[in-house]
User: What shape does this take?
Amino acid sequence: MPELPEVEVTRLSFAERIAGARVQSVRLGKPLRWPLGVDPLVLAGRTVRGVRRRGKYLLLDLDRGVLLLHLGMSGSLRFDTAMPELALHDHFDLVTDLGVLRLNDPRRFGAVVYAESEAAPEAVKLLGGLGVEPLGGEFDLAAFHAALKKRKAPIKQVLLAGDVVVGVGNIYASEALFLAGIRPTLAAARISKPRAARLHAAIREVLARAVAKGGSTLRDFSNAQGESGYFQLEAMVYDRKGEPCRVCGSPIRMIRQGQRATYFCPVCQKP
DNA sequence: AAAAGCCCCTGGATGC
DNA sequence: TGCATCCAGGGGCTTT
Assistant: This one.
């Protein structure tokens, strides 16, 4: 589920409310992708300084150490004052004096991992290989084009890999390529400078717009206040197989790339 | 080094 | 109604 927009929308929905909270206890449900990596008891008494985002990870900064949270495919966070017992699919609770931060994740591809710092091995293992942030100033066009030049794989899969630019998942990769007019199957290395510039702009535009719309709620995403997103209503190609292109009317096509669905308009997007 | 496949897991939709 | 199959916002790990 959650790509950069959903993760950022989640962050925005509780970062200010949890800042300054004192951890009282940690409750664990079923195992997630990785173990927490620390005795939950030692986290009691620590203070939450703030919440940052790196790619699709949330970083919960404590006065000592950091919690790395990932929502996987089906995870969502809630931050609320009244939260009694862990229910089905609730697998992590950070109980604080200001409220409970709860991870609900049916498929359990998500994770909460503790690290002493961002430079600690456990954090570097997860964050070390990530590409640049698309919405920040470091997303440089020349560097982006140069990175694409080194890849022979289809552009869709290079975007998904996340080692060039982070945060673009299966929905927004298809959407950005539509906006840029580029066929998802085109080898990344064959993208010209002008087309790379269109793609660069399209990625920023689609992600920023999705954040503004509260993300995409396909089945179960909601932010930490329980609110759904609305970007899916204005998707140009994602999940629109056979439906008319909103620009030219041609039927949207669906293909499979690396066992993931890709959607595109055969007329608007040139090989 | 880069690319391609394989898993992890649960639930909903679809088909017979 | 029941059961089997396929598919889903991710990504680390192993194998080519």
The two ends of chain A are 28 Å apart (CA to CA). The helical segments of chain A are 4-18, 121-127, 141-149, 155-161, 170-180, 193-212. The first strand of chain A starts at residue 23 and ends at 28.
